[in-house]
C-alpha cells in the first residue's frame, strides 16, 4: 500500500470514529467537506421479515421453484378445501340431528303421548325441561 493511500484510509477511519463517538469524545465531529457518499455508513430504515429476506436473497432458479410451489398449493387448496368444509359441516349436521333426536325422545315424545291419552292438560306441560 502506498503512503498516500494509508494516509487517506487513516483520515477516513478517524472521521468515521469521530462521527460515531461524539458522545464519548465530547467534541463536535469534524467532517471533511469532500467525503464521497460511498464512504458513508449505510443506514437500515426498512424492517424486513425473515420470509421477505429469504425470498429476496433466493437465487433466480429458486424463485421459479417458489412460484411453482405457490401455484400448486393454491390449486390444491381450491380442490381440497371445499371437501374439508363439507365434511366438517356434515359432521355438525349429524351431531345436531342426533342431539335433537335424543331431546325429542326424552322430552317431546312423553309430552305428546300424555296429550293424546288426555292425561295431561295443556297448562300442566312444562315449556322447557332442558
Mean pLDDT: 77
Shape: elongated
Share of β-strand residues: under 5%
Q: What ranges have pLDDT less than 50 throughout 5 or more consecutive residues?
A: none
Give the domain tally: 2
Structural class: mainly alpha
Describe the structure.
The structure is a single chain. The chain is mainly α. It has two domains: 1-40, no CATH class; 57-130. It is built from four helices and no strands. The chain has helices at 3-20, 22-25, 50-57, 60-117. It is elongated and about 115 Å long. The mean pLDDT is 77.
Key features of this structure:
130 residues, mainly alpha, 2 domains, 4 helices, 68% helix, single chain, elongated
Task: Provide the fold topology.
Blueprint: H1 3-20, H2 22-25, H3 50-57, H4 60-117
Give a brief outline of the structure:
The protein is mainly alpha-helical. It is 68% helix and 0% strand.
Amino acid at each position: 500500500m502506498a503512503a498516500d493511500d494509508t494516509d487517506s484510509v487513516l483520515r477516513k477511519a478517524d472521521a468515521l470514529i469521530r462521527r460515531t463517538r461524539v458522545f464519548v469524545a465530547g467534541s463536535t465531529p469534524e467532517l471533511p467537506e469532500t467525503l464521497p457518499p460511498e464512504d458513508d455508513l449505510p443506514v437500515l430504515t426498512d424492517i424486513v421479515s425473515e420470509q421477505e429476506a429469504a425470498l429476496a436473497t433466493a437465487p433466480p432458479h429458486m424463485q421459479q421453484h417458489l412460484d411453482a410451489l405457490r401455484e400448486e398449493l393454491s390449486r390444491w387448496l381450491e380442490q381440497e378445501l371445499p371437501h374439508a368444509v363439507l365434511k366438517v359441516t356434515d359432521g355438525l349436521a349429524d351431531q345436531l340431528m342426533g342431539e335433537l333426536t335424543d331431546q325429542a325422545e326424552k322430552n317431546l315424545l312423553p309430552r305428546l303421548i300424555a296429550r293424546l291419552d288426555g292425561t295431561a292438560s295443556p297448562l300442566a306441560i312444562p315449556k322447557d325441561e332442558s
